Amino acid sequence: DAANEKVVSISGSSDTILARSEKGEIFIWGQCEYGQAGLGIHDVQLSCSRHIPFPAGKISSAASTTSSCLVSTENGEAYVWGVGLLGLGPTMQKLDRPVLMDPPLFGNEKVVKVYAGNTSFGSLNSKGRLFIWGQNRYGLLGLEHGKDQYFPFEIFFPYDVKHVSLGPDHSLFLMK
Protein backbone atom coordinates (compact mmCIF):
# COMPACT_ATOMS: atom_id res chain seq x y z
CA ASP A 1 0.00 0.00 0.00
CA ALA A 2 2.75 2.50 0.83
CA ALA A 3 4.82 1.69 -2.27
CA ASN A 4 4.03 4.97 -4.07
CA GLU A 5 3.81 7.13 -0.95
CA LYS A 6 6.41 9.56 0.36
CA VAL A 7 6.91 8.36 3.94
CA VAL A 8 7.89 11.16 6.34
CA SER A 9 8.01 9.24 9.64
CA ILE A 10 8.12 5.70 10.96
CA SER A 11 7.35 4.44 14.45
CA GLY A 12 7.71 0.95 15.81
CA SER A 13 8.26 -0.98 18.96
CA SER A 14 9.21 -4.61 18.66
CA ASP A 15 6.32 -6.07 16.65
CA THR A 16 4.23 -3.35 14.99
CA ILE A 17 5.39 -0.64 12.57
CA LEU A 18 3.48 2.52 11.55
CA ALA A 19 4.49 4.78 8.67
CA ARG A 20 3.03 8.25 8.08
CA SER A 21 2.96 9.71 4.58
CA GLU A 22 3.36 13.36 3.64
CA LYS A 23 -0.38 13.30 2.82
CA GLY A 24 -1.12 12.53 6.48
CA GLU A 25 -2.11 8.91 5.91
CA ILE A 26 -0.88 5.95 7.95
CA PHE A 27 0.23 2.47 6.96
CA ILE A 28 0.86 -0.52 9.21
CA TRP A 29 2.75 -3.82 8.99
CA GLY A 30 4.17 -6.42 11.32
CA GLN A 31 2.31 -8.18 14.13
CA CYS A 32 -1.41 -7.35 14.18
CA GLU A 33 -3.05 -10.14 16.16
CA TYR A 34 -4.31 -7.69 18.80
CA GLY A 35 -6.20 -5.42 16.40
CA GLN A 36 -3.30 -3.00 15.83
CA ALA A 37 -4.26 -2.79 12.13
CA GLY A 38 -7.24 -0.70 13.24
CA LEU A 39 -9.40 -2.31 10.59
CA GLY A 40 -11.22 -4.84 12.74
CA ILE A 41 -8.97 -7.60 11.40
CA HIS A 42 -6.76 -9.83 13.51
CA ASP A 43 -4.25 -11.27 11.05
CA VAL A 44 -1.25 -12.47 13.03
CA GLN A 45 1.22 -10.88 10.62
CA LEU A 46 1.02 -8.29 7.85
CA SER A 47 4.13 -8.74 5.71
CA CYS A 48 3.28 -5.81 3.44
CA SER A 49 2.16 -2.38 4.54
CA ARG A 50 -1.58 -1.81 4.70
CA HIS A 51 -3.32 1.56 4.57
CA ILE A 52 -5.47 2.44 7.59
CA PRO A 53 -8.30 4.70 6.40
CA PHE A 54 -8.80 7.55 8.81
CA PRO A 55 -11.94 9.64 8.28
CA ALA A 56 -11.15 11.98 11.20
CA GLY A 57 -8.56 13.90 9.19
CA LYS A 58 -4.89 13.92 8.33
CA ILE A 59 -2.51 12.27 10.77
CA SER A 60 0.19 14.59 12.13
CA SER A 61 1.95 12.10 14.42
CA ALA A 62 1.85 8.32 14.92
CA ALA A 63 3.38 5.90 17.43
CA SER A 64 3.06 2.19 18.25
CA THR A 65 3.79 -0.04 21.23
CA THR A 66 4.22 -3.79 20.91
CA SER A 67 0.43 -4.24 20.77
CA SER A 68 -1.27 -0.85 20.34
CA CYS A 69 -1.21 2.38 18.32
CA LEU A 70 -1.73 6.08 18.99
CA VAL A 71 -2.09 8.90 16.46
CA SER A 72 -2.77 12.61 16.58
CA THR A 73 -4.59 14.45 13.81
CA GLU A 74 -3.97 17.90 12.35
CA ASN A 75 -7.05 18.97 14.33
CA GLY A 76 -5.23 18.04 17.57
CA GLU A 77 -7.29 14.95 18.37
CA ALA A 78 -5.74 11.73 19.70
CA TYR A 79 -6.96 8.26 18.71
CA VAL A 80 -5.88 4.96 20.27
CA TRP A 81 -6.44 1.26 19.49
CA GLY A 82 -4.95 -2.19 20.09
CA VAL A 83 -4.41 -4.04 23.37
CA GLY A 84 -2.87 -2.86 26.63
CA LEU A 85 -3.06 0.21 28.84
CA LEU A 86 -4.63 2.47 26.21
CA GLY A 87 -5.23 5.53 28.40
CA LEU A 88 -8.97 4.98 28.63
CA GLY A 89 -9.07 3.44 32.10
CA PRO A 90 -8.47 0.02 33.65
CA THR A 91 -11.45 -1.67 31.99
CA MET A 92 -10.80 -0.50 28.40
CA GLN A 93 -7.79 -2.53 27.33
CA LYS A 94 -8.79 -3.84 23.89
CA LEU A 95 -9.96 -1.89 20.84
CA ASP A 96 -9.79 -3.17 17.27
CA ARG A 97 -10.62 0.23 15.75
CA PRO A 98 -9.34 3.76 16.50
CA VAL A 99 -11.23 5.50 19.34
CA LEU A 100 -11.09 9.23 20.10
CA MET A 101 -9.51 10.08 23.44
CA ASP A 102 -11.35 12.85 25.32
CA PRO A 103 -9.64 16.28 25.07
CA PRO A 104 -9.81 16.86 28.87
CA LEU A 105 -7.31 14.00 29.20
CA PHE A 106 -4.75 16.36 27.63
CA GLY A 107 -5.66 19.56 29.47
CA ASN A 108 -8.28 20.54 26.86
CA GLU A 109 -5.48 21.44 24.45
CA LYS A 110 -4.64 20.04 21.02
CA VAL A 111 -2.33 17.02 20.93
CA VAL A 112 0.58 17.90 18.62
CA LYS A 113 2.92 14.90 19.00
CA VAL A 114 2.60 11.33 20.25
CA TYR A 115 5.26 8.87 21.46
CA ALA A 116 5.35 5.17 22.32
CA GLY A 117 7.59 2.63 23.98
CA ASN A 118 7.06 -1.11 24.33
CA THR A 119 4.15 -0.73 26.77
CA SER A 120 3.62 3.01 27.27
CA PHE A 121 2.49 6.15 25.48
CA GLY A 122 3.20 9.85 25.74
CA SER A 123 1.68 12.94 24.16
CA LEU A 124 2.67 16.56 23.95
CA ASN A 125 -0.07 19.17 23.78
CA SER A 126 -0.05 22.57 22.07
CA LYS A 127 1.03 24.27 25.32
CA GLY A 128 4.12 22.02 25.56
CA ARG A 129 2.68 19.95 28.40
CA LEU A 130 3.63 16.25 28.49
CA PHE A 131 1.14 13.51 29.36
CA ILE A 132 2.19 9.89 29.86
CA TRP A 133 0.46 6.54 30.53
CA GLY A 134 0.94 2.79 30.32
CA GLN A 135 2.89 0.17 32.19
CA ASN A 136 5.15 1.79 34.76
CA ARG A 137 7.66 -1.02 35.21
CA TYR A 138 10.61 0.14 37.34
CA GLY A 139 9.08 3.63 37.38
CA LEU A 140 9.95 4.15 33.70
CA LEU A 141 7.16 6.71 33.22
CA GLY A 142 8.89 9.22 35.48
CA LEU A 143 6.10 9.22 38.04
CA GLU A 144 6.76 9.21 41.77
CA HIS A 145 5.41 5.68 42.10
CA GLY A 146 5.74 2.31 40.37
CA LYS A 147 2.05 1.72 39.64
CA ASP A 148 0.69 1.39 36.11
CA GLN A 149 -0.94 4.56 34.76
CA TYR A 150 -4.39 3.95 33.19
CA PHE A 151 -5.09 7.52 32.03
CA PRO A 152 -2.82 10.23 30.57
CA PHE A 153 -1.05 11.92 33.48
CA GLU A 154 0.77 15.22 33.20
CA ILE A 155 4.43 15.26 34.18
CA PHE A 156 5.68 18.68 35.24
CA PHE A 157 9.14 19.82 34.18
CA PRO A 158 10.93 23.12 34.78
CA TYR A 159 11.59 23.45 31.02
CA ASP A 160 9.66 22.86 27.79
CA VAL A 161 9.69 19.25 26.58
CA LYS A 162 10.94 18.98 22.98
CA HIS A 163 11.14 15.21 22.49
CA VAL A 164 10.40 11.98 24.34
CA SER A 165 11.87 8.49 24.00
CA LEU A 166 10.14 5.67 25.88
CA GLY A 167 12.09 2.44 26.29
CA PRO A 168 11.16 -0.90 27.84
CA ASP A 169 12.74 0.03 31.20
CA HIS A 170 13.44 3.77 31.02
CA SER A 171 12.36 7.11 29.56
CA LEU A 172 14.30 10.04 28.15
CA PHE A 173 12.90 13.58 28.04
CA LEU A 174 14.70 16.20 25.94
CA MET A 175 14.03 19.75 27.14
CA LYS A 176 14.81 23.24 25.98
UniProtKB/TrEMBL annotation:
GO biological process: positive regulation of mitochondrial translation
RCC repeats by residue range: 128-176
Top-level taxon of the source organism: Eukaryota
GO terms assigned for molecular function: guanyl-nucleotide exchange factor activity; rRNA binding
Entry's Gene Ontology cellular component terms: mitochondrial inner membrane
InterPro entries membership: Mitochondrial_GEF_domain (IPR053035), RCC1/BLIP-II (IPR009091), Reg_chr_condens (IPR000408)
Span of the signal peptide: none
PANTHER family in UniProt: RCC1-LIKE G EXCHANGING FACTOR-LIKE PROTEIN (PTHR46337:SF1)
Protein name: RCC1-like G exchanging factor-like protein
Protein's organism: Angiostrongylus cantonensis (Rat lungworm)
